[in-house]
Amino acid sequence: VLVGPEGYLGKHRKSHPYIAEPKWAASGDTGHQVFETSLGRIALLICMDIHFLETARLVALQGAEVICHLSNWLAERAPAPYWISRAKENGCYLIESNRWGMERGVQFSGGSCVIDPDGYIQASR
User: Fold this and answer.
1) How much is the mean pLDDT over the chain?
2) What value does the CA radius of gyration of the chain take, rounded to a whole number of Å?
């Protein structure tokens, strides 16, 4: 869900489920939208959506200036190289919010960051 000062702006449903997710969840049916906001044109992607370069490209071709991506990546290098690639390929900012910490023996990698259109990390945590 995308919420701004003026309230609800839109939603995105994950289009590419992770490995076991199709057993209990279906791919989203909202398509790939870009939302007009006071901060610019924003698109939303969830988890595996970012692995497919076409997904980010679809929103870039619709004029997205910022892609907000949330994920639960397991212990791997963060920021992930493909986060940087999606920003550079599409000439837009990528705001990555990735889960961090340990839960039930599973380590999540964190690495939340803001990547500029040239692929440089401008902020990270």
Assistant:
1) 88
2) 14
